Amino acid sequence: MTARLLPFSDDPIRPSSPASVSIQFDGAPIEGVSGQSIAGVILASGPLGFRRTSVSGKSRGVFCGIGVCFDCLVEVNGDRDVRACQRRAVDGDVVVTQHDALPGSIA
Amino acid sequence: MSSVLILGAGPAGLAAARAARRRGASVTLVDSSEQLGGQFWRHLPAERPAARERILHHGWDTFRALQAQLVADDGCRILTSASVFAIDATASPSTTGTGPGRVHVIVGPSDGTGRERIELLPDAIVLATGAHDRTLPFPGWDLPGVFTGGAAQALAKGERLAVGAHVVVAGAGPFLLPVAASLAATGSRVLGVFESSRLSSLVRGWLPRPWQLLPAAKKGAELAGYIGGQLKSRIPYTTGASVIAAHGTDRVESVTVASLDKNWTPVAGTERTLAVDAVCVSHGFTPRLELAIAAGCQITDERFVAVDDAQATSVPGVYAAGEITGIGGVDLALAEGALAGHAAAGGNPFDLPGEVRKRRIYEGFARRIEAAHGIRPGWPDMVTDDTIVCRCEEVSFGALCSTAESTASTSLRSLKLTTRAGLGICQGRVCGRSLEQLIARRLPGNTLGDTVSTDRRPIAVPLRLGELAAAARPTDPSPTTPTPLADPPKGPTS
Ligand SMILES: Cc1cc2nc3c(=O)[nH]c(=O)nc-3n(C[C@H](O)[C@H](O)[C@H](O)COP(=O)(O)OP(=O)(O)OC[C@H]3O[C@@H](n4cnc5c(N)ncnc54)[C@H](O)[C@@H]3O)c2cc1C
Ligand code: FES
User: Fold this and answer.
1) Rg of chain A's alpha carbons, rounded to an integer?
2) Nearest CA to CA, how far is B429 from chain A (Å)?
């Protein structure tokens, strides 16, 4: 078990039934709930780490959740370096993970 | 009629907007988020209505009232998804000749392309940019699954997402309690809350003047509520202990928890390991000072924006409120915001004695929090040579030390340039203050050879080059204000 969206039927705040949103993540379709951030949709679909760092190739994902740390960068519809925690998922978004090579190395 | 620009729509900014409107100013309220409410009232998006969302929040009715009033008011223009990236204090003053400068804003989806740039020239500015979590570095804190407390809180309140199934909450401060409570209310099992400060310093911090607690009873009750809630859901709360390492390869699998002495140095032999799939760590908050610095405001020795009784900063026409003037929680932010908005619109603090009183009460509360939970000097003992200290540039503590030694450098500026620590894309927001302390600790007298502040960031949010090159929309006219917002009914202010 890992990060997960609380099923709306179990939620004590009694939400109405939510609409879904579906995006492409590294080529595979994943589903979330309308209004979620791209980071939230990715986390709830399984991976905690979804970027590799340039120096040591380590895995990173969400850290601060509020747009401060820039650890959650992804490519969205061709735009690189988008903070996944700050960008709302829109149906059909094409999200690709970033594995930045150091300048000068061969990607 | 004056125009007041409010930067940040958290509790402080919302209270400021309402107070300025009550005095008849024309108000523009700007926030980079898509929603109003700031960090405290982060909530579900409009398309996810919930009958009982209020149970996730304190002061939810206060928020709903502020929001409804401002949204319905023609004299308040609200710009969301709008990030202030610079303040040009040297720009020509506004029409009335008192303006504090030109404020540059970019409007559109975060980190998008082709967003719209606008420039504002208000008569007065209220800075209410709040704070973000401060997490001290420890081995493994860069693993996926290690979150700040704020991240867990934001995902729980804003999306109903639990960051893990088996979670530990650690660090310092009363904020750990709402984080644990939110996690529990979102379906996580919280294995424990570990508060670095020892019970004795908590007692010293909270109890030297117990009578001061009486007027702040509301806040006391809120904390008691959290503790009560924890007991109900059986979350153990341990003082004088914290997470000192996280383990795993591509994600966190376990954490080491150890006792800390009164300086927060881990006590050898007390370590134990807990299996987790997430850990949330916060050691307090760092105020977001970059816009205040850009506006030329004086910063205090404790590194908050310096303000007087009217919440006025050292720069004429610039006011500040909320966490950027001191960490004190929502009630202090609301009182300061009301006073700042009122003063920015030409009022005097004596007009609002109720807010002045609240500010005094909650300032006392803030001082107790700092006394009880403030970061202690032994924390670097958690840091090993392999510990990443700058996450963006992946600089380890060992690399930082060996560079300092080989260059005999005592200046933060030169160490940053040689190691790149603090120069990554987060602009030192996450590591800056910890780097300063780690380097200073190795030097005689615990002081750096220079006074470069890691809080200075001329461009506050990243822009795309194309956006920077594109022309900004000429300064928008302020909203016209038909009538001031009605005053509150007589009696205690809301
Ligand atoms: C993630 C997080 C969660 C928190 N949750 C709680 C909690 O549950 N309980 C509690 O007691 N305290 C909590 N706190 C502490 C909290 O900071 C205060 O209680 C309260 O929110 C402070 O109010 P404020 O108005 O000063 O700032 P904030 O609420 O932080 O509001 C500041 C606003 O300014 C905006 N802003 C900042 N920079 C810019 C810019 N350049 N351009 C445009 N907009 C900008 C931000 O988007 C934000 O909305 C939390 C803090 C954080 C960081
Ligand atoms: S998680 Fe920190 S910026 Fe997105």
Assistant:
1) 15
2) 7
Structural domain boundaries, residue A87: 20-99
Q: What is the pLDDT of residues B286-327, one digit of tens each?
A: 999 999 999 999 999 999 999 999 999 999 999 999 999 999
Q: Which residues, 6+ apart, have CB-to-CB distance to B267 below 8 Å?
A: B258, B259, B260, B261
Q: Which of residues 407-466 of B touch A (CB under 8 A)?
A: 424-426, 429-430, 462
Domains and CATH numbers, chain B: 3-131+286-351 (3.50.50.60), 135-283 (3.50.50.60), 383-446 (no CATH)
Classify residue A86: in a domain, yes or no.
Answer: yes
**Nearest CA to CA, how far is A6 from chain B (Å)?**
6
pLDDT at position B97 is 56
Whole-prediction pTM value?
A: 0.93
**Which of helix, strand or coil describes residue A57?**
coil
- Pairwise CB contact (< 8 Å): A64 & B148: yes
Atom of ligand 2 nearest to the CA of A85: 4
Beta carbons of B160 and A60 less than 8 Å apart = no
Q: Is A85 in the pocket of ligand 2 (CB under 6 A)?
A: yes
Kindly report the protein residue whose alpha carbon is nearest to atom 35 of ligand 1.
B8
Residue the block writes with tokens 């001329």 = B458
Cβ atoms within 10 Å of B32's Cβ, excluding its own: 24
Angle formed at CA B73 by CA B72 and CA B77, multiple of 5 degrees:
105
Report pLDDT digits (tens) over A36-63. Answer: 999 999 999 999 999 999 889 999 999 9
